[in-house]
């Protein structure tokens, strides 16, 4: 028990330090590449921070514990669009959402978040459903890259901008600094998941609860810490980009791969009801908040925080 608590505390410390470094590196890379912080965070940080969920999903599929990974994805989606979004806003102020590209991405994020729920209406998620989810991820990411023509032009001009030896050296240094920060974030998150999972298994808690609450909190810590650090340093677009990108990857790429390996058939729907209900409410409410007043305010963030607390409370009561 001592070593489990020790690993948890060390992992939290590493997570905080690596989160700070990742924000600085991403900001500098965005400047060099001529891309918006939103796009860089969406593509790079969202994919990197989703690796814990990916490892959990693949491992669970091969070990025939799909309920654990599916509960993890349900929990992380709800956390990303409530707790992880609300805390940075409450700490630093509203996130401006008036850009058409932002609102379009928010709509796509909400739609893809709802897609697994729609596919689950027949009581199962098959390999065909997995292919549909994978297709949705490719369509969304291709649409993101095509939204602005100057983004492709920026990539074409990268080497012109960093052709000076000192500029190249700085670019390479920041890129590897980002990779190291991400590696530390993932390592720290795995340490937290392992320690929380050890405590949970000793209490004989259900797999779905472990995935939706304990493992989800652990695997979402990279996005949460990154968002708080980004907001603190006035990079709110990074916060939104990372969270929206993570939700898309969770619901399309990760679930798609998992169901290709091991389909999910629900024989007892009762444990899934609350998670599915919140999986519908949260993305819709998120999109409504993005559209209203062209920003997500502190008041709306407080509502999102209350929704997550309600979700967690229901999960605890249903044990």
UniProtKB/TrEMBL annotation:
The keyword Magnesium does not apply. One of its GO terms (biological process) is intracellular calcium ion homeostasis. This is Sodium/calcium exchanger membrane region domain-containing protein. Keywords: Membrane, Transmembrane, Transmembrane helix. It is a multi-pass membrane protein. The chain crosses the membrane at residues 38-62, 74-96, 102-121, 175-195, 207-228, 240-260, 272-290, 302-318. InterPro entries: K/Na/Ca-exchanger (IPR004481), NaCa_Exmemb (IPR004837), NCX_ion-bd_dom_sf (IPR044880). It is found in: Membrane. Pfam families: Na_Ca_ex. GO terms for cellular component: plasma membrane. Residues 4-135, 175-316 form the Sodium/calcium exchanger membrane region domain. PANTHER family: INNER MEMBRANE PROTEIN YRBG, SODIUM/POTASSIUM/CALCIUM EXCHANGER. GO terms for molecular function: calcium channel activity; calcium, potassium:sodium antiporter activity. It comes from bacterium (Candidatus Gribaldobacteria) CG23_combo_of_CG06-09_8_20_14_all_37_87_8.
